[in-house]
Amino acid sequence: MKNIRVMLRAILAASLISGGIGAVFSRSVSSVAQAQGGTGLSFFITSAGSGNGANLGGLAGADKICQTLGAAAGAGSRTWRAYLSAAAASGQPAVHAKDRIGSGPWYNAKGVKVADSVADLHSDNNKLGKDNSLTEKGATVNGRGDTPNTHDMLTGSNANGTLATGTGDVTCGNWTSTATDGHARLGHFDKQGGGEAPTSWNSAHLSNGCSQPNLVATGGAGLFYCFAAN
Question: 14 lies in which domain range?
């Protein structure tokens, strides 16, 4: 009888210890998950554009592309915004890319923080470039010197993230046009190349037209940046 009581106490103790360990383990897993959630995917270059040059379906269409790609990468709970500026039109004021993307910080698909804030993103301190400016899949993008070269990113923006200034349209009809005589302001994701500001990630030079062949000939593929606004 004594032996049975001893065995029962041992079983009970083991059960309590096991439950305690399980609870601690569960809390640890939860903490890790929360930490990872704080540094989860919140910035990427689109792995594909619209396929129709700079006609993205406007800002709404571009945001939808970001949202779809973000969701496919497991980050669909975030609100994704395309880093694009747009000119005033139809009674609506101009839109500045920097005002669309939230407050940061932003992390790529490998968990590398590329910028702390909007100000940091538009400073020389950002960690953008070929190594860290990845697609939503965590893949690198072809840069200058690669074949094909797809380093031109659609932005329509100045270096400070506001709508690009200049003569004529610099947003390909607010991202609805494939006109061969149109223009879009482009950035170099790899921070190298030609143009007035070759090392600028968001405002290097203009495209030679708005069609897909135009963008390819200029050095791009109609790709653009996406940021999580929340």
Answer: 1-38
Q: Where are the alpha helices (DSSP H) in 82-187?
A: 118-121, 172-175
Q: Where is average pLDDT lowest: 8-17, 147-156, 202-211?
A: 8-17
Neighbouring-strand partners of residue 43: 227
What average pLDDT does range 170-187 have in this prediction?
Answer: 97
Q: Are residues 1 and 65 in the same domain?
A: no
At residue 73, the pLDDT reads: 97
Same domain, 108 and 203: yes
Contacts of 1 (CB under 8 A, 6+ apart): none
Mean pLDDT, range 76-82, rounded to an integer: 98
Rounded CA separation 93/109 (Å):
33
Co-location of 57 and 28 in the same domain: no
Considering just the CA atoms, what is the radius of gyration of the chain in Å?
24
Q: How far apart are CA 166 and CA 73, in angstroms?
A: 37
Dihedral Cα 163, 164, 170, 176, nearest 10 deg: -20
Same domain, 8 and 45: no
